Amino acid sequence: MKVVVIGGGIVGLTTALQLKRELRNIEVTVLASNFDDTVSHVAAGIFRIGSSYSGPTEEITREWIRDSYEYYDDIRKTVESPFAGVTTISGYLFANSSPETVKNHWMQDLVPIYRRATDEEFQLVQNNWKYGSFFTTLLTECRLHLPWARKKLQENGVKLEIKEINSLKELAFDWDLIMNCTGLGARTLCGDTHLVSMRGQVLKVKAPWMKMFFYGELDTYIIPGFNNIVTLGGSRNFDSENTKLCPYESAAIRERCENLLPGLKKAKVVREEVGLRPHRENNVRVEVERIVNGLSTAILVHNYGHGGYGVSTAPGTANYAIKLAKEMHKSSVAKL
């Protein structure tokens, strides 16, 4: 079977890795317009799923999240973990609006620790926060993980090619299975009007003393990564296509983060970044269909629309996408 994965971000590369693991004798190619400049590169990479994240059903969504956590945790337990950019991290979530804000129904039964913050722990940050939680989770640093994933794919005979795709249908001539992991690009390729951009801007600062993450409200977060680089965020500009850096937004982000942790005032800015998250209004799309182009037919599986949770849930949606592909292939063979 000849398989093509469209998309060079975390969802595409993880899907390709899972395909080679599940179906060893297949021929896999990954096509992307760019492998080095994707929204995945901007992400802080912390495994934290927002309460609004949604698949087709709650049961399937929990399966995606559980499978994703186990995938990264398995990497963490190996000697590959520093090269793959996967590690454990602990930290705090503080809020004033509601006690529900610091709870998380996706995470609480999944991660090893998720508990209420103690009175002493509230003293770690400025401002008089009413509610707080402490939890331990995983971090996947994409600037390490994506090159590691590409290397693993090439070691397993997967071809990585730079190519612009104008139509999914045209791929049916050359491929038996097409995995559509194009993120925001699916808006044009699939005519998906439910898919919109969610602009985000972050600062990367040098702060070697930071070992724990901190979240406040108003999309304020401080997340340490590898090499003493800390991500300060953030923003969520709905339906914005602007990829230019906004100095006022950077100043506002830095002010909010420094209000939470004044020690960050001495942190030097390394770079500022903007990314367009592929936000899908209904839910993440992981669906299968059969496409026909003349005498050629192919199985097409969509796997896109993860919003700001692509890094966190890519392995789980990849598993599910491959499962759908195998079921469709099995039913096609049975009909013959």
What do these coordinates show?
- The chain has about 325 residues and is α/β, with parallel strands linked by helices.
- About 30% of the residues lie in helices and about 30% in strands.
- The strands form 2 sheets. Strands 3, 4, 5, 8, 9, 10, 11, 12 and 13 form a 9-stranded mixed β-sheet that branches.
- α1 packs parallel to α4, α1 packs across α7 and α2 crosses α7.
- It is globular.
- The mean pLDDT is about 95.
- InterPro entries: D-amino_acid_oxidase_CS, DAO, FAD-dep_OxRdtase.
Give me the secondary-structure topology.
Blueprint: E1 2-6, H1 10-22, E2 27-32, H2 58-76, H3 81-84, E3 86-95, E4 113-116, E5 131-140, H4 142-155, E6 159-162, E7 177-180, H5 186-189, E8 195-206, E9 213-216, E10 220-224, E11 229-233, E12 237-238, H6 247-260, E13 268-280, E14 285-293, E15 296-304, H7 310-335
Parallel strand pairs: 1-2, 1-7, 2-6, 3-9, 7-15
Antiparallel strand pairs: 3-5, 4-5, 8-11, 8-12, 8-13, 9-10, 10-11, 14-15
Helix pairs in contact: 1-4, 1-7, 2-7
Protein name: FAD dependent oxidoreductase domain-containing protein
Organism: Xylocopa violacea
Keywords: FAD, Flavoprotein, Oxidoreductase
